[in-house]
Amino acid sequence: MKLRQLLVLIFCFVMVFTLAACGKNNSAGNGGNAAANNSGSANSAGDNAAANNNQAGEEEYKPEEGASLIVWDNKDKEGEWSRFVAEEFTKKYNIPVKVEEVGHTDAPGKMKTDGPAGLAADVFAAPHDHAGGMAAQGLILENFYADEYQQDFMEAAITGTSVDGKMYGYPTNIETYALFYNKDLVKQAPQTFDELITQSKAFTDKAQNKYGFMMEVGNFYFVYSIIGGYEGYVFGNNNTDPNDIGLNNEGAVKAGQFMLRLKKEILPLNNEDITYDVKQSLFNEGKLMFNIDGPWAVKGHQDAGLNFGVAPLPKLENGNVPTSFSGVKGFYVNAYTKYPEAASLYAKFATSEEMLLKRFEMTGELPPRKSLLENEIIQKDEIAAAFLTQAQSAVPMPNIPEMPAVWGPAGSALAAIWNEQAAPKAALDSAVQQIKEAIEIQKTEK
Predict the structure, then answer these.
(1) For residue 104, is it within any domain?
(2) Pairing of strands 123-127, 69-73
(3) Strands of 303-428, DSSP E
(4) Which of 63, 94, 212, 253 has its CA 20 to 30 A from that of 195?
């Protein structure tokens, strides 16, 4: 009797563990399939690969047998880096990779025709503001390693390469703008705009064409840093809700008023007189102390022999750091690829700590990996370190399809405010109304 009871007890334990294991496996399977289905039905192989990856775990991720890849990237230094990555990837995984020169701004458009036709690259570089359109058209697969990237990459890089809460891109670099200053004219970079204004007042002399501070005051790309710093915003819900436009809220109006203060106290020129070329020339000639610009301007100033530095944007009156717009470049995996696992593995390999540090060394572009923020090689480069510090406060340009409707009206409003043709509230209200109308037209044209 005791033996029979013991056998029954053992049988019960076996059944309990078997049912528990089945329940766990089913849950994992459903979660994996749900994640895979998020990428759409354009490529069932990609969906299955994502599901298998979620179930098996990222460390067990394996490329397809017999895989070979084509990668699209820019020419020059970025192309050289891509060829380096391809060689290293082939050494490690024995997968042939061919790098073709297709510009990152051209690739999204080329994908529309070449992707469905089976002629496109398996992995391609693209700017983040195209991600929304590419995802909506089913051209790209989700990032198979999204959880890992959430932990390892800067928030702006994650946000920029995500659409509707799903991450698609594998970020390679991030860029934003910051404060350039002439070291021969400035003893110490200002920590606040009040300090900047004080230093600028002592130097500005319109009659001698000398100015303490300049920025493109009618360019929404640059002025958004001040709007965001005063808690204005483009779209609600982290720039994903086009029904909520925050460019005429209380904070945005305060930003407009602050711009007028800059004009009155240190930059007495109209918008049309403050062109990019004008301020670059003045800066190189030693007639401008402070200039807001991006990393693309560095080489020109170096070639001019200017003794300059770069610092994060100074804090505003409310104590906030201006939230500059950032651009995030990344790799995306073609939804029509025959080798979704190998392609995703390549994108991950290319954005590893080792490869992104190599990219910085070869191109000077800033890596968005958190582990590289304090890297000695990057920190020794004072200019790169300053841009990277500002990038941590940056907001990615919205990547939803409605964003193109913003640029024109917003820029016109800023110019009207600066030239004192309209009060900040009235100009911004008008801009928001124009943006809403343009978005409605977009909807009817779809």
Answers:
(1) yes
(2) parallel
(3) 308-311, 325-333, 395-396
(4) 253
Question: Do 283 and 147 reside in the same domain of the chain?
Answer: no
Please report where in the chains the tokens 């698609």 appear, as a residue. Answer: 168
CATH of the domain at 235: 3.40.190.10
Q: Are residues 144 and 155 located together in one domain of the fold?
A: yes
| pTM confidence score | 0.80
Same domain membership, residue 274 and residue 196:
yes
List Cβ neighbours of 276 (8 Å cut-off, separation of 6 or more).
Answer: 216
pLDDT tens digits for range 199-209: 999 999 999 99
From CA 358, how far away is CA 329, in angstroms rounded?
16
If asked whether residues 386 and 272 sit together in one domain, one would say no
Which tens digits make up the pLDDT trace of 22-56? 343 333 333 333 333 333 344 444 444 444 444 44
Q: Judge whether 223 and 243 are in contact, CB under 8 Å.
A: no
Cβ atoms 301, 86 nearer than 8 A: no
Phi first, then psi, for residue 81 (nearest 5°) are -65, -45
| pLDDT tens column, 388-406 | 999 999 999 999 989 999 9
Question: Which structure tokens are listed for 215?
Answer: 């920025």
Number of H helices, E strands in the chain: 19, 14
Q: Based on the fold, state whether residues 166 and 185 are members of the same structural domain.
A: no
Considering the domain architecture, whether residues 284 and 303 belong to the same structural domain is answered as yes
Q: Which domain holds residue 406?
A: 178-325+398-445
Q: Which of 299, 265, 306, 304 is nearest to 181 (CA)?
A: 306
